[in-house]
Design brief:
The protein is 35% helix and 18% strand. By secondary structure, it is of the alpha/beta class. It has one domain: Rossmann fold, CATH 3.40.50.1360. The chain has a 7-stranded parallel beta sheet with strand order 1-10-9-6-2-3-5. Strands 4-8-7 form a 3-stranded antiparallel beta sheet, covered by helices on one side. The chain is globular and about 45 Å long. It starts with a strand and ends with a helix. The structure holds 2-phosphoglycolic acid. The site of 2-phosphoglycolic acid (PGA) has 8 residues, from loops.
Amino acid sequence: MKILEASDYADLSRKAADILLAQLRGKPDSLLVLPTGNTPLGLFRELVRAARSGAADFARVRFVTLDEYAGIAGNDRRRLLLWLRKELLDPIGVADDSVLAFDPLADATSEVERIEAGIAEYGGVDLAVVGLGPNGHLGFNEPGSPFDSRARQVPLTPESIRSNAAYWGSEADVPATAFTLGLGTLLASRKLVLIASGAAKRDILARTIDGGISPEVPATLLRRHPDSLAIADRAALGG
Ligand code: PGA
């Protein structure tokens, strides 16, 4: 795992955008996995700016959603796909048929098969960008998730329910279960990039970089990946 230090959040966002845009220059029809959460918002702003200025062309890109709450309506305000649509996909003009997204109300078994089959049909994930959960989760791969796990439905840990409450109002607003790509799905992506910002991520980032490689800290999966990169700002790195 390489580590790229950013001076601050704006720099982190630019560095992450540079990597994504270089990926698209090399392969305009890349299959990308992008996260929701607060960390990628600056990256998304950079990508929207690049699309508007003509510096990037997203016409042939395909997206797979990293995760999605389960058991909510397709148009529920908490739907992570709608968050991604609002912050990135709509502003850069991505059509529905370019996005492979978990249906929150679908039967879990057939839905995870559909998503994994869709990824295989596109030829695999070219670049996956993930945020870092306060407990080290990637997507909703909570501590203890096997490194070879594939897409599946999972219960959220109390810690993730607490951190997700910040997005929706209260813990009661956070669905108890979710779909997620698996750690094995992420390990199989050609390139894996983690973004982490702020002092609140300092401890878990240190464990990700220097602690034992273990499913107990799912983000340590990056150290098993042949082409992985953590982009973190100085606050997260403890500098
Ligand atoms: P954040 O979430 O980007 O809002 O910090 C990261 C995560 O929990 O995966």
